[in-house]
Amino acid sequence: xxxxxxxxxxxxxxxxxxxxxxxxxxxxxxxxxxxxxxxxxxxxxxxxxxxxxxxxxxxxxxxxxxxxxxxxxxxxxxxxxxxxxxxxxxxxxxxxxxxxxxxxxxxxxxxxxxxxxxxxxxxxxxxxxxxxxxxxxxxxxxxxxxxxxxxxxxxxxxxxxxxxxxxxxxxxxxxxxxxxxxxxxxxxxxxxxxxxxxxxxxxxxxxxxxxxxxxxxxxxxxxxxxxxxxxxxxxxxxxxxxxxxxxxxxxxxxxxxxxxxxxxxxxxxxxxxxxxxxxxxxxxxxxxxxxxxxxxxxxxxxxxxxxxxxxxxxxx
Length: 316
Known about the structure:
The protein is mainly alpha-helical. The protein has one domain. It is 74% helix and 0% strand. The chain has 15 helices and no strands. Helix 4 (50-82) runs parallel beside helix 12 (231-259) and helix 6 packs parallel to helix 10.
């Protein structure tokens, strides 16, 4: 596994710096916030047009993060301009295409199917890093990917393999599959991002992602109708902008820097874990034995994939 140099690492003298340099903590955040993203996307499907949700997600996220990015932009913008082809590709794949396709999928498929198809993303990341960079997995990492994937299938199937065979697939599943491939390639290519501060990178990709979506948003508004200014719509925009965008993306991008794409991609397997936990805590749903089995497999897989090899014994 090839690791990126730690770009924009925060100092370890602060609690923020400690978190920013601890991938096992960072990996929890995208899974938690993206679990809510699938639920929000599905709940807003009948009210907010998909491109409108994606556009306002990134426009608001860019606006909110701008004050934090401003001190770094003077130094980092020239570097990003010199690397404009990869910046454009990363923005299109990971910002504009992925989330728009996910929100389109939410109009014609279920939240369960969205989560299930997302869990294939780490495998696609492995394929993408091999095809593009000829990266290979160690046996330990491969075992971690397999164990974690089996854990997500256990959660989705409720411990019954027949459930997977009986899932009802829709047109939206093709959109979600395309979204998963798009984000997997984004993850693989993140190592090529210019060596700029993480906040600068996030702001530019968020703003550029919104700009790329703008003409499609205008066309959708003219063809489908404007987004309603209801409390539910504004709350959905607020959640996906702050939690599913700013916090989740910065944590995920930093995890890729620290662990590499193949291992960082496993955070997607935490989405059904947190979805289940939130359902138990907030909706009063029951916890079953298959939940615990799935949690254990995912935890074991993540431990295998992120475990640092033991240091060689000193020679006498």
